[in-house]
Amino acid sequence: MQADVIVIGGGIAGASAAYFLSGLSSVALIEREEHFGYHSSGRTAAQFTVGISAGTMRRLAQASRAFLETPPPGFAETPILTPRGCLTVGRADQEQVLVRLHDNLTSVGARSQPVDRAAALALFPALVADHVDAGIHEPDAMDIDVNTLLQGYLRGAKARGARLIAGAGVTAIERRNGQWVVSFGDKAQEVQTLRAPLLLNAAGAWVDQVTALAGLAPLGIVPYRRTAFTFAAPTGLDTTGWPHVGNVDYQWYVKPETGCLMGSLADAVATEPGDVHPDDLDVAQAIYNIEQDTAFRIGRPLSRWAGLRSFAADKNPVAGTRPDAEGFFWLAGQGGCGILTSPAMGQAIAAIMFGRDLPEALQGLGVSAADLSPLRPTLRPSG
Description:
The chain is an alpha+beta fold. Helices cover 26% and strands 26% of the residues. The chain is built from 10 helices and 21 strands. The strands form 4 sheets. Strands 5, 6, 7, 14, 15, 16, 17, 18 and 19 form a 9-stranded mixed beta sheet that branches. A 6-stranded mixed beta sheet has the order 9-2-1-13-21-20, with helices on both faces. The longest helix is centred in the N-terminal third of the chain and has 15 residues, at 55-69. The model has no long low-confidence stretch (mean pLDDT 93).
């Protein structure tokens, strides 16, 4: 099978890349699991926010807002974003951290509302008053309908002629006569091959494993596990309109969901890529932390899960190639922001792979191809 571009990895990164690339070329998107978006893309807090510390990631988020708010005609039958808001609270001795969050938000043109204790409690009444002195409210933070977004990318890519292949683990990657040859299959399948002059590695936590299959030095992307759970809202309490809330030192966060609330320790535990599972101690610690700072008494969680967040050394994403990797590109290191930055990241890698200028929305926010390059000085060499 021949294509112009092979994309390895059918999470939100690979799906968005396939969507934007398929407008320029013939694309084959290949995913090891039986379903697209199985791993990190399906295990997320599903929050759109630009309150992100890493500068390039923050600008990518803001550049993605317009697409998510108003997707192209026919992309989605229902809204991708719904209002939620995000409240970050802290003590008086954490004022400078809150100021930094405020500055980060306003640096990309996002609204930021400093709030005092009374305003914070009005937004999220379950907070313990004595543990909150001030906060930052991001009123334009949103909930993301991840499945609607993912299916929009996949459906759009397919409509543009992309071939979508699930349940196909990659077994070998070789460069032959100016083409990347990707072999895939499993014990129950005859091995098949795809050929293309360009290959995009969007394999998430597995990005360095795929890189190694191609005989190239890794980027040094590190997967981190994050554990989350849901719990029942107190009887008679309507939390529907409450914002996502967390404390400024990332000891916990809580987000209202339909009929319940989601909680997390906001943990980041380095781990090997795989089908990760929730850690009981992390769940217990999260429950303890949440109960210290809120009136919630959680008891037994309704459900629990874990997902992977993959980071480059400088916490900003990677989109580009290296001189030692002719025709081989990376889309990696989204650090838990892959869904909310997927429009900008997909457009960026499509432009980079075909030698075009980055979209004006990215350039206007000061993002360059050099900021995304795997050769940027802030990335440690690997391999």
